[in-house]
Amino acid sequence: MSYGSTPPYPGPPGWGGWMPPPPKPGVVPLAPLRLGDILGGAFATIGRHWKQLLGMAFTAYGLALVAIASAIAIAYTAHADRLDRVLDSDVAPGWDDVAPLVYTFGAVYVFGLFVVLVANALIYASCPAVLQDAVLGHPSTFGRVWRRSVRRVWSVLGAVLITALIVAVPLLLIGTAFVALVVTLITLSSHAGEFGWLILFGFLGAVATGPPAVWLWVKFCLAPAAAVFEGQGAVAALTRSSQLVRGDWWRIFGISLLAYIMAAVASYVVQLPFSLLNAIGPSLTDDASTSGAALTIVITSLAFGLVALLVGQALTAAFPQLVVSLLYVDRRIRGENLAPALAEAAAGPPAAH
What we know:
Layout: H1 35-78, H2 80-88, H3 95-134, H4 142-186, H5 192-219, H6 223-229, H7 234-245, H8 249-287, H9 291-336, H10 339-347
Helix pairs in contact: 1-3, 1-9, 3-4, 3-6, 3-9, 4-5, 4-6, 4-7, 6-7, 8-9
Keywords: Membrane, Transmembrane, Transmembrane helix
Transmembrane segments: 58-78, 98-123, 153-183, 195-218, 249-270, 290-311
Domain DUF7847: 64-319
């Protein structure tokens, strides 16, 4: 279902000042949402639809891993002889020898970066797609979520890329200043005059551009939800997000920041046991009686580590987007009286997708 605009509807009057509680067909009540409703709704969505969310995460990141590994294998196969000559040469290789390697593996790096961005956009699109059923209390399947997400992934990717470019400005400035500072310290300040202006420019530029970048990031944070719920394109979704955030910037900023912190902590807790296993893995292989047993321990440790990394990445990407998508629903309920349309949709059969 697409969450389109709805006319105002006052709802049933109360009896003697008493108002009945709002309907709750799914994970949240169909009324203005409080912090507890939003966080509880996000957790309830994960609890009810974890198969779809984890399935999307494993599929997206798994396909990304296969694509990147294939690109690396093709690049290595094409330049294996040249790479061996460069690495085994006793003399410093010339630019003519190194240039094809730099260009090829640079292209692989750019391709890998793009593939990861597409995978993240697919996860960002899957969260509102899951919430379309979770809010209405309808059952969901991986196939339904996959089709909804794939149809909107390019719009979500465009919105995410534009927002990322805005946020990247202060990050690049502070990174430039940090690198210049490290170079100055390593060279024992012999180039302090040469890099001093760069350090000052980087830090002052980050201070100047940081607050506007955060402000714009919050204004555009509802764009993925708008792209999926309303079928908006990238630019239209950014404009729609800006409209919905207007007048409630600080609340959306605070709840979104809390969601990212909670996701980071949960991801760390999930990955911690596997990190400990990887840390003690080498000592176990030393004590293994046979090489086969040692290899089994290493492979098992790597497999569990990869699973933990995928689960942690899924939590880091999915939980904040579920919270932000519920903020989108909340803003529509508060500003556009979306609740009656949701209640009507919840009473009917699930829409075919």
